[in-house]
Amino acid sequence: MALAAVNPDLARARTQATFDPLLLTYFIYDGPEKTKRKRFLQNLAVKDCKEQRFCRYAELSREEQYEESLRKSAFAVLRIRQLGLEDSTEIRFFREVLFSSEPHPFGVHEVMFIPTIEKQSTNEQRAKWLPLAERFGIIGTYAQTELGHGTFLRGLETTATYDPRAKEFIINSPTVTSAKFWPGGLGKTSNFVVLMAKLTSNGRDCGMQPFLVQIRDLETHQPLPGVSVGDIGQKFGFAAMDNGFLKFNNIRIPRENMLMKHSQVLEDGTFVSPKNDRLLYGSMTLIRSQIVGSCGRSLAKAVTIATRYSVVRRQSEIIARTDEVQVIDFQTQQYRLFTLIASAYALIVAGQVSTQAYLSVTKETESGDFDNLPVLHALSSAIKAFSSWEMMFGVEQCQLACGDHGVLLASGLPKIYTNEVPACTYEGENVVLCLQTARFLIKSYNAAEKGKQLPSLARFLQAPKGEKNKLTKKLELDQLIAAYEHRAARQIQEANARLQSHLRRGVGAAEAWNRSSQSLVEAVVAFSQAFIVQAFIEKVTSAKLDPSLSAVLVQLCQLYALQGIASNSGQFLKGGYMSDHQLEMVENKLYELLAALRPNAVALVDAFDFPDKVLDSDLGRYDGNVYEALMDYAKRSRLNKTQVHEGFLKYQKPFVDFLKSQGAQSKL
Amino acid sequence: MALAAVNPDLARARTQATFDPLLLTYFIYDGPEKTKRKRFLQNLAVKDCKEQRFCRYAELSREEQYEESLRKSAFAVLRIRQLGLEDSTEIRFFREVLFSSEPHPFGVHEVMFIPTIEKQSTNEQRAKWLPLAERFGIIGTYAQTELGHGTFLRGLETTATYDPRAKEFIINSPTVTSAKFWPGGLGKTSNFVVLMAKLTSNGRDCGMQPFLVQIRDLETHQPLPGVSVGDIGQKFGFAAMDNGFLKFNNIRIPRENMLMKHSQVLEDGTFVSPKNDRLLYGSMTLIRSQIVGSCGRSLAKAVTIATRYSVVRRQSEIIARTDEVQVIDFQTQQYRLFTLIASAYALIVAGQVSTQAYLSVTKETESGDFDNLPVLHALSSAIKAFSSWEMMFGVEQCQLACGDHGVLLASGLPKIYTNEVPACTYEGENVVLCLQTARFLIKSYNAAEKGKQLPSLARFLQAPKGEKNKLTKKLELDQLIAAYEHRAARQIQEANARLQSHLRRGVGAAEAWNRSSQSLVEAVVAFSQAFIVQAFIEKVTSAKLDPSLSAVLVQLCQLYALQGIASNSGQFLKGGYMSDHQLEMVENKLYELLAALRPNAVALVDAFDFPDKVLDSDLGRYDGNVYEALMDYAKRSRLNKTQVHEGFLKYQKPFVDFLKSQGAQSKL
């Protein structure tokens, strides 16, 4: 497509901004230097994509996506090495262009297989396997989940039985449900796995242990004898990934292939138990904090697409017999999009704040102080759940906001939805995570009741007193934070009361917990949102910003907080904490903020600084030339390879001819 | 797959029901006779599918789905004629098995093209075209939407210019944005369209008019000269449908091809204006009422799948060191699923009640009484929007409730989500519909303020007095209805107040409306939910039911109503209409209802009476043999055609060999 001028509506929208979006870009990418570096790397990647002629997934079949993904993966590895990139953030920016919301078959090799070998091997094992894995001499995945079993380790059925005579483990999949199922890259790409299996040695159940198991021949890539492996079929998104199944029929692996940093099996079969490993706890916390930020980025992509398109798109009229209106001028559309822009910023900031908190707590743990780790762990689980749900609903709203065209794969939105929403289940299913955090909160709440001092992140969990919120028309930021903290404390108090009341009536502890779990989850959601509101407001108010930018960011903070109050108003009204009058004010102000943000909408999404290649969207193009792009996309449809589709000759024509031969004897 | 016994957990769940699900099946399918007929037809269709060896879309590529869909469509037409089916409900039941949540390329021909010819033609036109269309001698679609323009008729750009000398219309697509875009069956299947185009005759703008335009040769199926037509590319779902684009380069059609029942162009180019057509208004009302029921059915499918799977699936533990628990025993899962079961029944019933209301109002209109039509029209728009949104969120929750496996196409859930959620935009985009209804409600509200008598469906729209809700632990059904009516009236009152306040401050009417539109939409949602709660309760309490069934249905009504109160609690608390204490009771009762419904969960979804073929889900199978089915599905994945995928030889091996040749010189 030839370069065209920017769509005039979009160009005009950019001139209306009251702040310089570049300043906001600096704010979220940590200053001008890092922004420059990010842009440099992403520009390189854009150039690479062009030169390599990587195809667009929206136009490929599943098999083609898998192949293209292999090609891109191989290219990415070599190119990143050639560029000497080592910083994980820099690598992420580079990859983001090549694999925009797209999984890749080497992904689990890089983020799970190699790190597991690093962390769970003995020194000898590391020396043997790590260099091999790093040069892809073996390609592996992490095989834990089974067809019938999820993240609950004790439920897994795959067995590893030690045979002391041969000094080997016998690996077996005794049932249908014991088949490994879902690991990424397992179906067609991997020749090795880290296998989680239930170890038996000398007749003793030694729990779940990790084993390094070869599954395919390193040369021919054929599955080894006794190994049944393959792809698990078409999914909602994730087409480029060969998620796989894997069954073993009593295959043998050497004793040395158990990863023995923690547990060990000696030659005679003696099992040596592990010491406690608190650092694992830590790395989960880090990963979850990072997911919060990446949910923010996913939402940011979707809302960038929907906002730009809503400026370009004209539809219907507000004032009769005038031009069709830019759909972004409808208040209902502003409500949808601007609250999501605020959300995206809030989540990105919350991810940064909690990652930062992780790093400082890690320093404490290095000096032997583990006090703050549980709070942070509880917090990161909760906000991971909250942010992935918020992202899911948000991306869905963006798609609705784009009407019919949002459904075209060329909009980029279905890919974001299908490939990012799994964040709700990976690294801990959201409900399960919320309930873990609930345990911590209930414990903290009861400790606070007994007058114990709580860690700062949970300090507001004291029984809410009879105070009232003092929010006025000025939308005082401290009152907004206070409102969320009060609500969270109150929700936790109520969930705890429910739990205690079951216990008092003689319900067993486990069942009482279960019967309170829905309200516990809701309390954790309130807790998460309180953290995010606070983190967003504090980051914005503590940063040194140009007043023009600061004004807009404060509006975003307010919008984010107000919308959460308006849509959960009962939890703020309860007990008379807020008044009907305040709630009405909250709603009025919310609508005023929508109007106030209108001139800045495009600048706010431009500031996310996504190259077009990352958005991969005909609707979200920076130049706004939406319709030409969609028409080009349409013309390239595979069904258009021939003017007359094969199906016409095979089925339609014979059918029509048959009806014709019958005459008009029968009616529809 | 060999027939296996029913999964024991599922079998046991069925024995626990306190009522006979068949009685509930009779309740929703209108008695034993109609149920019998439904089952007879669906069994026939199941047998047909087997004999014809129709393939499963979850295992096909897009092109294959299109072809298979043509084959099935042709088969369905012939078979339905052969069976002599004429009743639209019976045809729907038969088709539901063949095309479960799947679009088909002849669909628009049957539901839009033919009916438009019927309704908008003169007698001569009807005589000429209808028989031809009915025997598929011409196959058409309805081409209104354009690339740059949606449902707003006045915005369309395609032109039809009358040439009185040749007595022809010249059809043209003057811009990129004027291309027709999206019509179903347009891309590859249709050879005709009903085209909506902006008519100019004798230099006069005569507005949008319908034309019958041939686009492909009836024999060769090649596009006619001046016609550019094709498929629009891959979408989120709807793979089997060739949604298309269509551009005209000044092609000519005879004057007789304008559908002239209403407007006419005489030979000399004189334009004759139409009379008012109120019946169109009526048919939209009917279609929207039917969408409400079909959203209920879509949700019912999804929740049947998720509920059965939640009984079969075991995961984690409630009491430590006991067996893994059926996930349906987690309260959080019950909350998700049982509220959706209640929703599905509520929407199905609401669809029936409003369709019934339509039929009785139609009788009134036939005797010249149009008074109730506007209310009903407003109502059907609102509940169409409400129910499609509710379905969307519900299907999404069902998918989350199934964890990873819910994402496999074999779960059936992605198909329901992608192919049913468009109900949010077709037959009127939801927000637009809500705002139409808002106009009616605001008018009614102001009329009531002036003491005017309102039609019964809107009677509760009088300014809410200072009364309090009297709900007690007994969960009085009339108090639940009263609560929803009060809330709706209050929300409308508030939205109106907002509107009036903008007007008072001198904002123009159109802009004041726009600035109140988000609160108007929320008021319409409250209005819709009030109708649905009332319809559900009244249908259940007025039906003659076995007490065992009636008890469970009343629980469902209560659950549905309570959950709506709990999740919009602020709107019920405001003004002190409900107390904190009542709200707490609402929540406690809600959790009690979840536990009470647990033994009936499977019976409640069994009663929807979907054959496995309709669910098309390995997770939702009646026999619960989920894992065997999933493993079979996995093995049939197209990526498993060869053990070693082509991509390995093309990209992976060369890459690995290259890295090997480089030695371990570089690190990851």
UniProtKB/TrEMBL annotation, chains A, B:
Residue ranges of every copy of the Acyl-CoA oxidase C-terminal domain listed in the record: 477-656
List UniProt keywords, sorted A-Z. ATP-binding, FAD, Fatty acid metabolism, Flavoprotein, Lipid metabolism, Nucleotide-binding, Oxidoreductase, Peroxisome
**Can you tell me which residues bind FAD?**
T145, G184
| Superkingdom as given in the UniProt entry | Eukaryota
Q: Which cofactor does it need?
A: FAD
Under the GO molecular function aspect, what terms does this record hold? Answer: acyl-CoA oxidase activity; ATP binding; FAD binding; fatty acid binding
Stored InterPro entries: ACOX_C_alpha1 (IPR055060), Acyl-CoA_ox_N (IPR029320), Acyl-CoA_Oxase/DH_mid-dom_sf (IPR046373), Acyl-CoA_oxidase (IPR012258), Acyl-CoA_oxidase_C (IPR002655), AcylCo_DH-like_C (IPR036250), AcylCoA_DH/ox_N_sf (IPR037069), AcylCoA_DH/oxidase_NM_dom_sf (IPR009100)
* Gene Ontology terms describing biological process: fatty acid beta-oxidation using acyl-CoA oxidase; lipid homeostasis
Q: Does the keyword Lipid metabolism apply?
A: yes
Active site residues according to the UniProt entry = E427
Domain (Acyl-CoA oxidase C-alpha1): residue spans on this chain: 281-442
**Compartment list:** Peroxisome
Q: What is its main location?
A: other
Keyword flag NAD: no
Domain Acyl-coenzyme A oxidase N-terminal: from-to ranges: 23-139
GO cellular component terms, semicolon-separated: peroxisome
Pfam annotation, one family: Acyl-CoA_ox_N
Q: In which pathway does it act?
A: Lipid metabolism; peroxisomal fatty acid beta-oxidation
The family annotation for this protein states:
Belongs to the acyl-CoA oxidase family.
Protein name listed in UniProt: Acyl-coenzyme A oxidase
**Per the UniProt entry, what species is this protein from, by scientific name?**
Candidula unifasciata
